[in-house]
Amino acid sequence: MQVYSNNGGTWINAAQLKAQSDAMHQKLQPYGYKYINIDAGWNDGVDAYGRPKPSTTLFPNGFSDVIDYIHANGQKVGIYSIPGISPALEQANLPVFGHPECRTGDLALQPLQQADYWGFGHRIDMSKPCSQAYLDSIADLYAEWGIDFLKFDSVTPGSGHSDLSLDARAEVAGWSQALTPHGIWFELSWALDLNYADYWKQYANGWRVDWDVECYCPGQALTAWPNISRLFPKLAEWWRHGGPGGWNDLDSLNVGNGAMDGLTQDERRTAATLWAVSAAPFYVGNDLTQLDQFGLSLLTNTEVLAVNQAGRPAQPVSTATDQQVWYSLNADNSYTVALFNLGGSASTVTANWSDLGLTGGAQVRDLWAKQDLGSFASGFTATAVPAHGVRLLKVTPQAGSTINVNDDDQRVAYAGTWQRNGGREVTTITDSLALTVADTTAGGTAPAGGVRTTEVNNDNPAINYTGTWSRSWSRGLGDYQDDVQYTETNGDAFSYTFTGTGIDYVTEKHASQGDVDIYVDGVFKQTVSTYQASGRGAQQVVYGISGLTNGIHTIRGVKKTGQFMLLDKFNVRTPGGVRTISLNDNDAQITYTGSWGNSTGRGFGDYRDDVQYAEANGDAFSSTFTGTGVDYITETHASQGDVDIYIDGIFKQTVNAGQASGRGAQQVVYSISGLTNGTHTIRGVKKSGQFMLVDRLDVRQPSLLTPDTAVFDKKTSAQADVVVQLGRPASDLTSIQRGSTTLVNGTDYTTSGAAVTLKKSYLAAQPTGYTNLNFTFRSDYHNDIHATTANGAALEFAFKGTTVTWLTATAPDQGEADVYVDNVLIQRVNLQTATRGTLQSIFTRSGLTNTDHTLRIVKVSGSLLRNDVIRYTTA
Length: 875
Prior knowledge:
Keywords: Carbohydrate metabolism, Cellulose degradation, Disulfide bond, Glycosidase, Hydrolase, Polysaccharide degradation, Signal. The longest helix is centred in the N-terminal third of the chain and has 17 residues. The protein is mainly beta. It is 14% helix and 42% strand. It has 15 helices and 66 strands.
């Protein structure tokens, strides 16, 4: 209300706070509301020991008068603070209460560093015992007053500063230590950095995940719809970090008074629903003396409040559209399901039970309407959900339904040291079979196999053109992808840097064209002719080279004669047996240290049209990957300089990203291959130049297909099926596609064990040339697992049902595990297999009585134990 009222600085006076306490006591307290939290502005100066003093203007009868009044109403009191120590307090050099050897002038970190977003104070040096003594003295004073809650604002990393230029983590730990003995709730604010979620969970009871929800529209509104809708993508990242012991905080819930909220009734209900299903604190931001009837109905709906207090944050099925389904699994086997329409017009929103992990029918209840809607076999569709509106449901599975419980569900309890993912998970993977279709019916020899050929069209942003070039498309002359690049000026050139063992320059031949000088890695190789006396030859290989060392190479072509020089495509050859995974610069697998920024929409040919950049020497990126090699790919430009590259902590090379003229997009500036297949780390450190950029990393891993290249000859006598061995169980293979066409299992191909046989009848129908058949393998359930390396570490799951099944990963690095049901050892299972598998059924126990049961799994041997899904049947 301070930011809504024109007299915000004096709004939190004694009379106002007492009025709010009385209003809460009368209207909201019977429903569980109990905190009166006082935001910024309650204090004025410090006492003789440097501890905050309450304002005598706001509280003329003393702060204790207000605190006692609130406590007498059966409520708790919260106040506000920020990190750091003020310059005035440093200069005053006051003694610390109870520690005369400590002075406030000695507490600031040297050299001085900004402590908060606004620059009010300096960071405190928490390595000094006197600093902790100072925080303890303040916490002790708060406890004497009867304070129950502390909001700690402007916490970094977060609060608009996530590059560690401001860092309040040490003070967060210090305040936690000071407050914990007194049982004072510790809430962090604002827009905390997700990368440090585990740290916030270790030291705090709650943390704000975004900026202020208020619109800062004094006298007009408390908030606005965009401030609500922006929380959805934030919670899609944060949901799993909330739970018992610490909660995601969405800021104040401003839905209690339509005249001041700034939201429509549908938007108010949607906000209340989002707070409820996220298990976020219901901090009401309105003047409680002015709540309207609709606002009261939102804040006091007992079924919705029960969702909030169940403490099970919801997750989205998908955030790809404005029609979103969010859900959570409750302890009683029911689901809470919210159907949000974030779009600007009424829409239909459908929840499919399979997306929730439920197989079978379910009873549905509308929680806002407090109305049973009936039984639904496979899902529920809400029609005409208003713009920015919502339906909130309780979905109760019928007897005989099965429920899949993901490894990160709160109902799964872990004992010992477990980690989510960490590179041990498997996401959906597509690996390609490089297929060459030839036809030697008229003579000739089919090309040899064992080499992958990748076609690179002339408009690929990694190709550099110097001089005056133009693009011609839709010529209808047989060009690859129906376009070419062309120039008319002698001396104009193209160049392309690639990773591989060979390359073909493919272009049109015609009487209007002439000679081209070809250079490879700066060495002149040959003058080739693109002249053809009559007719026109499309997609002609006019130069090819093979047998290069597998690594980075550059081909350059310079126009020498003729009216035109054209480029249609390159054929790049790489060794078989390797697949490449591209990590964009914003991938979570890449870590940045120092001050980095993200530039998007540059239009310079960047991979996914964005880059990360740094300007300070010493700033660095690093990425830990699993594979046999990696490429560092970035822009080259005159503004850039040298980068030191390290692999597994060992300096390898200083590479230069400079380019005297022009701009090179997606350039491979460093490449390494031949690493042992396993976990490795690449690190790049800025050494010189104005900027260092990261566009993407290409990680090489062994192919899941053996072989991953094949040649098929359409000549009748030469036709033969192609057999491919899979590096994953055949049950993990979800599809094979050529372009957008999905091959038909049983007709186009068959599977037997871990082998796929591509039928010659299918292959004979394909056009001659190069193509890729894309084999797609399923992921771990929800793309994640939990894993432990410690023998004796365990997971436990309580359920009520008649059958329980454990589905998880199998892999060469796994061993044995003991499975208990109701504390009785049932079976020792072996999870070690020659290849990595997903969602393998490891253990099933049926015929259980329809009572409460406990499944417990204990690691016995092997390098790892992974947990993915527990499935049980209701009765």
